[in-house]
Write the structure tokens for this entry.
Amino acid sequence: MALTLDELCRSPDHYLHSFAGDDALFVPMDRAAYRRSIFLDDRISPAGQGAMRVPVDALIPALRPAEPVDWIFHVAHCGSTLLARALDELAPNLVLREPLAMRQMAFGADDTGVGLVRMFLGRRYDPALPTLVKANVPVNFLIERIITAGTSDRALLLHFALEDYLLAILRNPNHRAWLRRVTGELAAYLGDLGELSDAECGAALWLAQTRRFAAALTASEAAMVLDAERFFAEPGVVLAAVTRHFGREAGKAEINALIAGPLFSTYSKNPGVAFANADRVSRRAGLTRELAPEIEQASDWIERTAPDLPDLLETLAARSL
């Protein structure tokens, strides 16, 4: 039976995975597939085989205002996957983690493209429950276009202090390679950072995202900031506050049971690896000593290049969850 354009645009069972040239790629999904897909990029775990290719031009006539969407924007390596998976357990809303199509929009999309992806991300199984989308770093450079396009959107901006961020992204060669790769991809927003050291490059990425977060807070009254270290230190208090921010209800016993379970004792991106906050704290102590010279170098770079930093941090602090 042929699928109509209206059916394609209304049901989350047809997931807009990505764009390939002039085509949009849709993969089959269901509620269980979304929940088990820790990420919705190439690591997606679909409900069936194959992908359907649809010319983007064929989708444009169906473009309509998106349903309100809840968002988690984050600076990376800051517990966003753990937070999104926890919210997936605590509430019946559909949770989408790092949709590839939205990431693609960060690289030169026009307003029509952004609106189209927003429309598909806004589809839901329960009309009363907005979809929650956890974006990734490139999408931070679209925040103002995204959340002002839907006046009912609520957003949480998961942030790190500079030192905490550097400890997270400079901790090993793989993370440093990620830093260089993502800043290269974002050269249109950041400029060429090739002459900077890893520490300075990390500081530049942190500063650019901090500026975007501050601008988003000015653009939307429904956006709040969360310090990632607070989430790690007080997960129960934070989860209660976050669920309230997103209009959900989660009881203390339910939250405590979740924290005592496997989600908070394994690596959120790879549940087969044991990893708890105590392990993170121990690792952090060693990294603080090891990376002290680079942290000082990054702080010096920020001091030289960011006279607006006090105002930025004041804006974030005033809207902290």
About this structure: The CA atoms of residues 144 and 215 lie 7 Å apart. Strands lie at 14-20, 23-28, 52-55, 70-74, 95-97, 132-134, 154-159, 223-227, 266-267, 270-274. The mean pLDDT is 94. The longest strand covers residues 14-20.
